[in-house]
Amino acid sequence: MKKLIFTFLLLSAPMIAWAQPYPSPTFNTVTLQTPLTAANGGTGVNNGSNNITLTGNLTTHGGHALAFTTTGVTNVTLPTSGTLLNTITGVTPGANSNITSLSNVSSIGGIPIYSALQYGAVCDGSTDDSSAIQSAISAAQSAGGGTIILPPGKVCAIASSLEISASNVGILCPNGGDNPNTFGSITGYPFTSSCTLKWIGSLGGSMVQIVSPHVSTSSNPIQGDSIIGVQFDGNAGLAANGLDIQTESAGNFKNLSFLDFAGGYAIDLNVIGVTNTNFNPLATASSQWNVFQNVFVQDLLANASTGLRLGSFDGGGSLTVNASENVFINTHIEVGASGGATAEGILFDGADTNRFYTTAVSEYADTAPAVDFSISQNGSNYFSSGANSFYGLVAGSEIIARGQTTFPSCTSSLTTSLGSEPCTSGDQIYDLDYGNGTQPPVVEPGAQLMWRTGQGVSGGQTFGQIAAGGNATDTLGAASAITNETLRIRNSASDNIILDNSSGVSAWGINLDSNSSTADLRINPIAGTSGTVLIAGALNTTGNDALLYNNSSGQSIPSGVSTTITGWTKVDDRIGAQFNASTGVYTAPATGYYNISAGLLFNNAASTVGNQYLIAVIAKGVNVCTGEEYSQNTSSSIPHAASVSCVVSLSAGQTALIQANQNTGSALTLSSSGAATYVSVSRIP
Fold first, then answer.
1. pLDDT tens for each residue of 20-62
2. How far is CA 627 from the centre of its chain?
3. Which of 191, 195, 285, 543 is the most exposed place for a label (fewest CB within 10 A)?
C-alpha cells in the first residue's frame, strides 16, 4: 500500500490513522505540533493514493522538524502561496524519497526558494550541474532574492563558476552542519556540511563568486547574500579558489568546509576595483559586516592555496576600499605540505578592523606564515592592514607583522611624516596559545603588533607611547602630560620602577626623591639588598667621541616629503670617519648612548598660520624624536627655526641621520648661514 507518513500528532483534533486508500485529499490548513512516529509510540498517518496536496498555510510549532517518508508516493505538493514557518534546515526527506518532492515549496519564512534539482541539476558527482544551479540563482536574482536548495548528501559537480550578483540570494543545504550527527566526509567537526560542490572545470578555476555589479555610477554594493552548509571540493587542486567575494556587506556564511585548492585562496574576502565611472560615488565598495561562522579549510597539497585572504583596493583617495568590520567565529585552517612554501593560513592584505573569535591555523612542513599582517600595494599607493583582532589564536607557524624589512619605504604610524605610507599597525592578538607550538610573533621594524598569551605574557615590538601610574589617578595624570616621549611614569606613593632579580626578589627601586622641581633621581636598594650600583667601563668626561657640523648648502626641502639633510661642513670632529658629511649618515663607533642635537633654519617664505616646519632624528631607520615649529602669522619676512635633541641607544655600526619636512605647499630652502643649521653628536660616558 502506498503511503505518506507525517511524523507529527494533530493535537487540535483526535488521532487519525488512515488504513485504506482515499482519493487525493486537499487540506486547506494543517497544524503539526508534536511528533507521531512508530518510534514515538504512534501509528502515523497513511494515505494510499498517489497524490497528496496541501494548500493554504502549513505551520509547525515548537521548532519541530518536518520529516517526510514518501515510499511509493509519486507526487507531494506543498503550499505554493502559503508560508512554511520552520526553516528548511528542519526538513528532511525520508530514505526512499526524492528531494524533488520539495520542489513546489515556494517560500520559507516568506523567502522564495529554488531547488537546484527542479532546475535540472543531477548532482551525481560527475555530470556538470553548473548551468542548472546558475539558472536557479538567476531566477532568485530576478525575483529580488531567494534561496537555492542543494540536495543533502549529494555531490553537485560544476565546470564553470557560479556567480551571485544581486542582494539577498542564498545557497543552502538542508541540515547542512546544523545537525551535530551530520559530519559529512570530515569526521570530528560538528559544523561540517552535508551538501558538496565539486569542481570539474579547467585548472585554476573559481567555484563560487559573489560580485557586486560595477559597470556605471548607478552600480551599488550587494548585501545579505548567504551560503550555509556547503562543502567546497577543489578536486585535488584543480580549482584555485573556493569562495571569491568581491564587495559584499551583511552576508551570512555558516557551516562551510573547503578541501584541496591550489595556487589561489580557499576563501577570498575582497573588493572590486572601483573607479570614478564604474560605481556609485556615494556608496562604499568595501566588504563589511559579513559573518563567517564554523569555517573549516583543509588543503594539504604541496601547492596549496592560502586558506583565507582579506583584501583591499587602493585607487587613491575615495577609491580606497577594503575588507573591514567582518566577524569570524570558529575558524579552523590546515594548509601546506612538505615542499610547499606559499600557502599562508590567513593573509591580511590591506584589511582592517576585522574580528576573529576562536581561531586555529596549522601549517604542515610549510615555511609560509600562519597569520600575515601585510600591506597591499597598487603602484605607488599603499594600503596597510591595521586594527585587526584575534580573541583566542593557535598558530602552527610564524605570525608576522610586515614593516620595513618587506616594505622598506613604509614608516611607523607613530611617527608617520607628511606624505609617507605607514607600515602595518594596531593589530592585536589576545589569548595567544603557547601550548600548541605557537611562537612569539615576528614584528618587522616600523610595524606594530600587540599580543598577549593565555598565560598573561604580553609582547610586541611597538606599543606606541605608554603612560603608567601607581593608581588610576597617577595613570591618567601621566597620560595627560605625555608629549613625544615613549614612556612616562607617575607614582605618588612609592618607587616608580622596581627591579627584581632572577629569583624574583625585589632588589632595587628607582624614583624621584620629592615632588619638587629640583627632585633628585635615586636608585635605592630594597630592604635586604646589600649590593652596590656598578658602572661597567670607566667614566669618560674628556669630550672624546663628539662632533659638530654645520650646513651652508642652502638645501631645498620639498613640501610634504621627509628629506635627509646632506652636504655638511665640519666644525669639530673627534670621531673621524664615523660621519659622512656628504650623505649626512652617522655610524656609531661603539655600542652606547648618544646625545644627538640638531637645528634647522628655513628661509623666509609666504606662510599660512599653522604651517609646520619639522626636524627629526632618524636612528636605526626609525624616527626617534621630532622637533617642530608652527607658523604664527602670514609674514614672508620671518624665517622659521626648528630644533631637536634626544638620547639614542645605538649598537656599533648602527646609523643615525637628520631629516626635515614642511607643509607650506612649495619647496623651501634652508638658510645658508652655517651656524643656523647644525648637528651635534656626542657619546655619553
1. 333 434 344 444 333 333 343 433 443 444 444 444 444 433 3
2. 35
3. 543
